[in-house]
Each structure stands twice: as structure tokens, then as C-alpha cells.
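Researcher: Next sequence.
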Amino acid sequence: MSMRSLWGRWFAPRPRLRVPLAVALVLALGAGGWQAYARFTDDDGPREWTKGPYGKAPAALGKTAPARPGEMVRRLNQVPEAVVGGLALYDDRTRAGETRLTAVDLRTNRTYWEYGREANLYDLGIGDELAVLWWHDGGLTAVDLRTGEPRWHAEAPRTAPDDLHSLTTHLRVTDQVVLAESEEEVWALSPADGKRRWRAVPPKGCERWFPVDAPLTLREVYVLEAGDCPDDPAVAPDPHTDRMAQVGLDADTGAVRWRFPHDAQSQRYLPANDTTVVLAPVRRDGGGMAVTDVSGRRPATRTLPFPDRERARGTTAHTLVAQADDGPGALRGYALDDGRRQWTHRAAKGTRLGEALVADGRVYVVEQPLQEAGRTPPAGPSRLLVLDAERGGLRYSMSLPELDRSGSGEPQQLEPSLAGDGVVAVSWSRFPGTGPDVLLLTDARP
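Model: Next structure:
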């Protein structure tokens, strides 16, 4: 007997049952759809889910950091974890005990997709196509940035028993590799399917990796830090080190290519290009600039002069951009071939420069009123400046609207917090993750 005849036999004489039956059928289909929508692990482990995507994927606002950031996209109350294409990415912990990653359309400020999982998060790494999440239960999940759907799941490196937060783990996600680093080991995984290519334990003589900063991924080598190296002959004899080592791992095999002492724990290595890294200053108490070619089997380092009281902010292929930690007044550019100062940019009278950000050959910095501890923040305009990183010339400037600075009596500074894909974000330094006000700017219209 057909379904149609069954329907007629049982419900045609009962018209009052048709509406309740239709509602029940919709609910049943909805429940079945949710079962397909929400994914469960085979062992009844943490549930994960995706909502969206909603509509067509938004296009990027630009290919690089903006050259003339004169138009405000919108004001936010949180600095995104990253801006990829036309999406701003945020992660948070919900009241239901879930970790949630949200992609928001930059143009509309509407949620494009959400991914969630009932688990605690160690770390989050974001590339051009993937977001990789490292869970406390020892797993990795790669989420497609265009759909919010999990692309693959994989095991994660071992972590020490007291690894309770992301200070002891780090992820680096690129188009070529996913590097997952804990104190115990480093894994290189394929971004396509999550399969492990190689595994590296701390080098002989060192007790752990030191994953405070993400590894540098250069053309032939990945650069990491190792700690607690009392038995490392390359490190221990140096009285200036804190038993730290800079280690180069072969990108194809994970084998140690080289290692040398490293004592600038508060200063990370910066890539000048895909074969050269720069450290300035070399030690925490000063000691010049080190420019190292890491393309060969043995690195070649040139030590150049560099002021003790300055810190590197960023590099280009030819120039290091630096700023004094306690100085409100100037930015300087130093040549990477000989260490000579190439240019200086000073703040206007009665103002200071916030911490600068270098991206795509440009320096982004906010010129703002001076502020003293214990005093009411002075009123006055602030300007976002865009400098040429190679020559130091002012390319563009724009007046910033007044930002809410409530919640702190301590000196604060406005600073660019991210720049790329057509946008630059400006926020207060006291609130690097969340704050009362964040500006998101893009190129001014012609």
C-alpha cells in the first residue's frame, strides 16, 4: 500500500489531526537535522558543532595593510584574534562550558559562522585558510575559515602535567605547515589532512622547548627556543646566557641544523626575509644587533651596533625599525647591512608616540597627547601616522576620534593592534584583548 493511501485511510476522516501532525513531523525532522548538524565523537566525547555559514563569503577589504587608513569600518569592543579576508575572528568561553570560535563579517558586523566544542582550549593558531585549535584533552581540530566546518582532527604533542594555559604551548599555521609546540615536543603536520610529518624533542643538553613566542617558519628552517640547557656545549660556557638556545630545525625532517646561545628572552627574533632573522638587542642588557643568515647548514651571524635602550618593533628586507622602551618621542630606522641609523621620526611638541607596528613595508604609530601617572588623561586629538619603513618619510596621517579610556588611572597609549588584509585596528595598550573601544580602519575612498 502506498504512503498516500495510508495517509488517506488514517487521517482523511480526522482533519483536526492534520495540523498537530504536521507540527510533529517538522519537529521530528528538525531533531534529525540537528543530529546531523551536531557532531559527536565515537566514544561519546565532547560534542562539536557549526552554525552557518550565512550567505556568500565576504571579500577582503584589501590585499595588504592599508596605505591610507582614512575610513572607519566600525568601532568594536574587542580586538579580533585575526582578520582574514573579510572576516574578523574571535574566540571565547560560553556559559555552557563550550569554547566558541566566531567569524564576523567586517562590513556588516554580523556573524558569518560559529564553531564550538565542549572542551577547554590550550591555544589557537590562524592561517590564511585554517584555524587550528589545541584542546586540553590532547587533540587538534582544523576549522575551515570559509565554512566554519572541521576539516580534520588529529592528536597533539604531549604536554607537561602542569600545562594549564597557552603560555606552554604554541601553534603556527601557514599554507605549508602546522607547527604545534609544547615544552615536551614539536610536531609538524600537513595543513591538508593533519598527518604528522615529523616530531622533534628538545635538543641534546636542553630539557625543554620554550614556546613563549610562535616558531618562525622560514624557507628551509624553523626557528625555535629551547630552555634549561645546562649540558649543551653550545650554550653552557657562555656566561651571558640564561641557559637558553636558539635552535634551527630542518623544515623537511625536523633535525637540528644549528643552535647558539640566546639571552634576549623579552625580545623575539624577527624575519627580515625567508632566510634572514634579526635580534635587537642581542641580550636583555643590550649588546648590539644580530643579523643571521639561516639558509645554510651553519648560520652566518653579523653583529652590528645598536643602542642599548631601544627595542626592535619590526623589520623589512633592509631596515630595522626601533623605539626606546621608555622614550615617548622618536622612531628610528637602522640599516641591516651595517647597523647605521637611516632615519628618525620625532613626535610633535606636547605629544608622544605609542608603540609602533610594522607591516607590509609601513610603520603604523599613533601620535597622542602626553599622559602622566595619577593624572587625568589630557584631552586632545590623536593621529594615526603611516611611515615608510625603509626611508622614514610620512606617507599618510589621519585624525582619530576620541576613544573611551575609562577603567584605568594608569598611563595608557593608543597603538595599532593588527594590520593586514585591508584593515588596521587601533586600541588602548592596557586592553590588548578586550577594551572599551577599538577602531577598525580601512583605506580612504578616492
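Model: The first strand starts at residue 38 and ends at 39. Confidence is low (pLDDT under 50) at residues 1-13, 19-43.
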